[in-house]
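Cytochrome P450 6ee1
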Amino acid sequence: LSLHSDCDLFFINFIIVPGIMELLIFDYLTKTLVYSSILATFIYLYFSWCYGHWKRRNFPFLKPNFPKGNNPTYLARFPGPHLECRDHYLEIRKRGLKFAGIFSVIHPVLVVVDPVIIKDILVKDFEHFVDRGFYSSENDPLSVSLLSMGGDKWKNSRGKLTNFFTIGKVKMLIPLMVGSAKPMVRSIGECALNNTDINITLLTKRYAAETVGTCFLGIDCNNFGDAEDTFANMVGKFFRDQNFTHLLRVSCTNRFPALSRKVGLKLILSEVSEFFKSAVRDTLKYREEHNYFRPDVLQLLINLKKEMENTSDPITEEQVAAHIFSFFVAGIDTIADLMTFTLYELCRNPDIQERVREEIMDIMKKHKNEFTPECLNDMKYLRQVISETLRIYPGLPSLERECVKDYKINGTNLTIEKGTTVWISIMGIHRDPEYHTDPEKFDPDRFIEDSAKSYSQFYFPFGLGPRMCIGVRFGLTVAQIGLIKILREHRMSLSDETCTPLKLNKQSFLLETLEPLLMRAE
């Protein structure tokens, strides 16, 4: 009996059980393989159907590649990185087309390259393309700003905020801009004295952050210190955080905005959001408790907030914070990059730099060393230099618009449907040899008054139409004052450590160098 029992146990444990397990595993693997194949087939067929979007509508299009579409290195639905958008522009121009469809993964995007159609979209028929298509959510208060608002909400807010950027208001802020430049010039002077390299990328960002901080928020932002929680660093985290979770959040909020709002997904990092809300909250509290008044943008927002307290659309403290945040986001990097690229080109073209420096000396002497709108306006050659910098390195390398109602493209039988995303490569147009002779050459004389008129149709570094950057006058004034302060004191040159030609950051939302730009001053 014992022998039979042992045999039975052996048979059960080593023959039957393993056999059953093998069958179960085989069955599991077979089902997994079958289901995976079905899922993969479904995904492929779905992608293939999506990739037929432009063909079904008789639009010309660039052939997509599964599964990334026409954007091989980037998954978020933005008009960039800027170099990819420019590459699409070049390919479409090469084919002799005025526009063509592409796919950001599976999201259809229309890239328009014809200047006439671009002007129609941005200006003439603007009511069809009011929205930028940026994500905003009430659960993410700082995302609801002038940058991301659409429709009537944007129109009403822009009407109120435009008053903050008039010639008179900017003139009032000039002394604050001049004061903010002092730490930057002092740092450059110390490097010149010690014969050391200057990280001009870092210094211009700190100057821009300091100026935006004092002009908009009315506080000393301490951007020239070594603290990690400066305004410049916080804006940098918003733009440059390469953490996978953040990149996934950016991709989801822009590709599936409605779903993201339902689940409460936030675009702005909590750390960044709390930093700005706290800064605005503390400043508002201090001014209220001490009855403190300061001629800056925050004060104008406070006044507007009081005016609208008893209306149907009052301004909340969070909305004030959102607008301040948007000014920081839109201002710091564009101002700093403009200054950095201008100085880079002046270093590469010392004859142009000398001409600029001579003009600065003469005009400042003429105006008794006082910074006034008249003084800045008289520096015509410096303004030409800035304009040429913006041609080669536009503040907005590309634009995104969302069609809010069906639009028939002039001269065609094709209709851009409501909800379609449109991309425009400003960088592509600005460097197109058909519109700009020898486009890679830095030539400020393109913008001598008479010559500049012929470029106007092919030059729009901050956009065109009603949705053009609201703070252009402010930003250009800050950059001009910063450049005057530097070039009045120093002659700049490139460090031996600086690689030329410049390598641009292909993954950036903005146009910026891959590595910090190093210079020398004397």
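thats it. Residues 75-80 have pLDDT under 50 and may be disordered. The chain has one domain: 120-521. bye
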